[in-house]
Design a protein that fits this description.
By secondary structure, this protein is α/β, with parallel strands linked by helices. It has a single domain, classed as Nucleotidyltransferase, domain 5, CATH 3.30.420.10. It has 8 helices and 6 strands, in the order βαβββαβαβααααα. It has a 6-stranded mixed beta sheet, with helices on both faces. Helix 3 crosses helix 8. It starts with 9 loop residues before the first strand and ends in a 9-residue tail after the last helix.
């Protein structure tokens, strides 16, 4: 695992899809950190604007998603590769966004937010900023979180830095959380929760809520 510097080891920006070289590079890794940025939180209304990926060597790639774009074949191949674990924070949203906008069915999945809630029961705070601060020792700047991601051709340096940082530390956090879950005898429970994420994401896309309530 790479030591983290203020900037990624490499940072690439692509339009609509990854290129062949970076796709081949990511295809040879066992895990990829992923995040997305959208115009809002309502699937089907708010379009997907950006997809960020990072490997264990701190190589970051961002894909700018075009208006009305409905597919990204190289990205889809990576996301649906059963030999590559996809690590998200709050995977429920990202998995639904990738399915709704690009027809991608992500598998397999690790969610650091779910892992945190099951493992870090001593804390009520499971946001990305808090999890990364405790487990990785990095204080994330979240000022660009609520901003206009639709201007993909004109994203500011602060937006791009924010997008990169949201994936750069996930794999390290995932390692720490997995150790914690195994130590506390909750690893298998967490894994079962991860397998439920695509179903919950589909329910979100169809506007179902509270279906497990009485």
């Amino acid at each position: 695992m790479a030591e983290f510097s203020p900037t990624p080891k490499s940072f690439s920006i692509f339009d609509q899809d990854l290129d062949k070289n970076i796709t081949n590079h990511f295809s040879n890794t066992s895990a990829i950190a992923i995040d997305t940025e959208a115009m809002g939180l309502v699937h089907g209304r708010d379009r997907l604007c950006l997809v960020q990926l990072c490997d264990s060597d701190d190589n970051v790639a961002c894909i700018r998603i075009g208006i009305n774009q409905a597919s990204a074949p190289k990205l889809q191949g990576l996301m649906e590769n059963p030999n590559i674990e996809k690590v998200f924070h709050f995977a429920r949203f990202d998995v639904a966004a990738l399915a709704s906008n690009l027809g991608i069915e992500v598998k397999p999945i690790f969610c650091t937010k779910i892992a945190s809630k099951i493992g870090r029961t001593y804390s009520p705070r499971h946001g990305l900023k808090e999890v990364i601060m405790e487990l990785v020792g990095v204080d994330l700047n979240k000022q660009a979180q609520s901003s206009d991601w639709g201007k993909v051709e004109e994203l500011s340096e602060s937006q791009l830095a924010y997008a990169a940082n949201d994936v750069r530390y996930l794999l390290k956090a995932k390692q720490k959380l997995e150790v914690m879950l195994q130590r506390e005898g909750r690893w298998q429970l967490a894994q079962r929760c991860f397998t439920c994420i695509p179903v919950i994401a589909e329910l979100d896309r169809m506007r179902f809520s509270q279906i497990f309530e009485h």
